[in-house]
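Continuing the batch. This is chain 6 of the set; chains 1 through 5 are on the previous pages. Same settings as before, nothing changed between runs. Recording input and output for traceability.
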Amino acid sequence: MNLFCEIKRIVSFGLKLSIFELKLKNEGKYIGFFWYLLDPLIMFLLLYLTRVFFIGTDFLQYPAYLMLGILLFNFFSRSTSQSLSSIRSNAQIVKSIRFPKESLILSKVFLNSFVHFIELFLFIIILIYFQLQFFNVIYYLFIFLIYFIFTLGISFLLSVYGTFINDFPNIWSVFLRMLWLVTPIFYVIDTIPIGKIIKLNILNNFLELARNIVIFNKYPTALDLMVIVFFSLNVFIIGYIVFIKNKESLVEII
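Output for chain 6:
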């Protein structure tokens, strides 16, 4: 019962923090949430028009393929980047107030989840505009839950390194730029020479799973689903354990 109450407290506090931050970021802005749509929309238009004019599209579903890739990568990129500096950026609060420190990391992933679902509005518009099926979007909720757990595990892990190592945010920023290139966001993995190597990228597995179900109406085998769920849970457990073991040290070092 105590464990359940503690989990409830962590989740509740993290959710409240994320809602507060979301309101704070949009306070005084006339078009508020529209700004969340602008970034992925501009990226989509740049990549899509570049491909249309210089390469050509390989298949009808490419616009949806591209947009979903952008949105999934953005969620991972923003969540992890914000989480790794969440302890240091809230140093005064962490030192002066007793509260579950896990909530700080959870709030960042929650916040970017809200933003992600706002951005999904663009994806649904693309599905409708290009006359693609959008009924399978409902299955996306389960895929995103797995992705959320995986991202949260990575975020817990990075928050420790981001606190102990001052230069780590810069290191992670460079890593994300390289990860963008080796993740099949704007290209099809089977059309490039190093496709077999890129398949080792775990983000590719999430993108492929989401695209197959939502866009191409292809469902994974039970084994494939079990593997990615098992992997995500293990990443989460490892990240959380590392965070818990270093939680008190994090407070001392900032």
